[in-house]
Amino acid sequence: MGDRAGHGTTVFFDLDGTLTDPREGITRCLQYALAQLGRPVPPQAELVQYIGPPLRWTFPRLLATDDKAMVDAAIEHYRRRYADVGLFENELYTGIPESLRSLRDDGFRLFVVTSKPVVYAERIIDHFDLAEYIEDVFGPDLDGRFDDKGELVAHILRERAIRPERAIMVGDRASDILAGKVNGTRTIAVTYGFGSMEELAAAKPDRTCHSPADIRDALGGLRGGTQAGH
Predict the structure, then answer these.
(1) CATH T-level topology, domain 23-88
(2) Which one of 14, 16, 172, 206 is the catalytic residue?
(3) What's the whole-model pTM score?
(4) Where are the alpha helices (DSSP H) in the chain?
(5) Residue 84, CA distances (Å) to 40, 81, 120, 188 in order
(6) Which of 7, 47, 81, 148 has its CA 20 to 30 A from that of 225?
(7) Tell me: the pLDDT tens digits for 98-125?
(8) Is 147 a catalytic site residue?
């Protein structure tokens, strides 16, 4: 890419499954919450599919109930373990720091936009020493405000006066791609996270990346105004 190739372009990065691999912490916390409620505890491999969506979406499905008190209790148990232990049962995908550094140096504005409560997301970014590359971190409040990722993206676009056509959403789940599309941003799906190829293809992202090393070129292609493709 040429000098300052990303000038004026904003990139919204999902966190779980895009920048970090949190499967150990999240699946263990889901198991812990279910055990505390006396419910059957699936193996970790069966819980990986729940990485990405908000807990208020996940627990009604795991518990097979819409009972708010039970869902709230599950979330409380989950967060008790997550805040102390699960948060750090997490690792960066190979090449992420280097990719973020290159993008920042190219002039892209980088934000984290996650379905994880922002109080946890900020701690993770600090833990992995990524704050120097990230302009800001956005996520839901603990009470569920902005659980809907489309609403969260809309809020950021308004608050930061970012033109949608100058923004690109990058994530590993269909919900990331759809959150970008509903707000008029361009989109990049990453296949190394937790969304299946079928899920991502159905969401019709503008680009698809198979490793963190591919993200810079994909962003450069969209920045350059080329047509959607893979």
Answers:
(1) DNA polymerase; domain 1 (1.10.150)
(2) 14
(3) 0.90
(4) 23-36, 44-47, 55-63, 68-84, 96-106, 118-127, 149-159, 174-182, 197-203, 212-223
(5) 23, 6, 11, 32
(6) 148
(7) 999 999 999 999 999 999 999 999 999 9
(8) no
